[in-house]
Amino acid sequence: MLVKSEALVIKRTPYTDHSAVVKLFTREFGLLPFLIQGLHGKQNKNSLFQPGTLIEVVFHKQNRGMMRAKEVSLISGWGYTHHPLHDQVRWFFLEILSHSLHEEQPEETLFDLSKITFQSLNDGCKHLPILPIQFLYKFCDVTGHGIQITEETKRIGFDILSGMPATSKSVPSNMIDGELCTALEEISINNNFTLPSKQRRSLVNILVQYLEIHAIPGKTLKSLDILQMIMQEPQQ
Q: For residue 234, what pLDDT is reported?
């Protein structure tokens, strides 16, 4: 069956000198493995299959084995240029997705969030210091582990272990305090919201802890330490 889908390149593993096994997160079919040949040929497929690239792919959908791409093109006709800070955020997002996606399990809402996030990042996102916070918060929501910010949590905080408003038994190190709950709600809807770097780092740390407990249990995000350096960048 010949099908067409938008896709995000998640991972690329060399196979031969001119081919690679590429994991694509497709909108309609979830994570699929592709064998891509002729990477260094006249068609210059190499740039199309860099992790973090958004593409449209036409392929024969099979029930098993690796897919073969018939046609591939960049979404909106663009890719991205490398910038050290943007690259580190890109790898952080890709690591989260690689831990959470399962082959051939459609995740259309998560794909749509990822597409918007990577388009913003690939376009040279101007709100880079808060983009990871926005993505983590929305990622938890679309994967069924949303953090509910209410007037109560803005007053007493949110317990990441229970996934409920904090209580007298909640441990501070396992809480998003009321002030950060208020900031998190604002960041989720306002790209221009400013927050001191110390609070940005605290929010990223606690959101990653929450994600590792509820959304990707048993997994540890190795790119977090590098990301925290980006959290210190001044907001424009």
A: 63
CA dist 110 and 101 (Å) reads 10
Sequence ranges of the chain with CATH classification 2.40.50.140? 2-77
- Decide if 62 contacts 10 (C-beta within 8 A): no
Distances (CA, A) of 86 to 110, 126, 222: 21, 10, 17
Q: Specify the pTM.
A: 0.90
Residue 130 and residue 134: Cα distance in Å, rounded?
Answer: 6
Q: What is the pLDDT of residues 147-200, one digit of tens each?
A: 999 999 999 999 999 999 999 999 999 999 999 999 999 999 998 899 998 999
32 touches 24 (CB < 8 A): yes
Burial pattern 23-55, b for ≥16 Cβ within 10 A else e, equals bbbbbebbbbebebeebeeeeebeebbebbbbb
CA atoms of 195 and 199, how far apart (whole Å): 7
Res. 34 pLDDT band, cuts 50 70 90: very high
Report the pLDDT value the prediction gives residue 231, as an integer from 0 to 100. Answer: 65
pLDDT tens digits along 86-132: 888 999 999 999 999 988 899 999 999 999 999 988 887 788 889 99
> In CATH terms, is domain 2-77 a member of 2.40.50.140?
yes
Sign of the dihedral defined by the CA atoms of residues 12, 27, 91, 208, in that order: negative
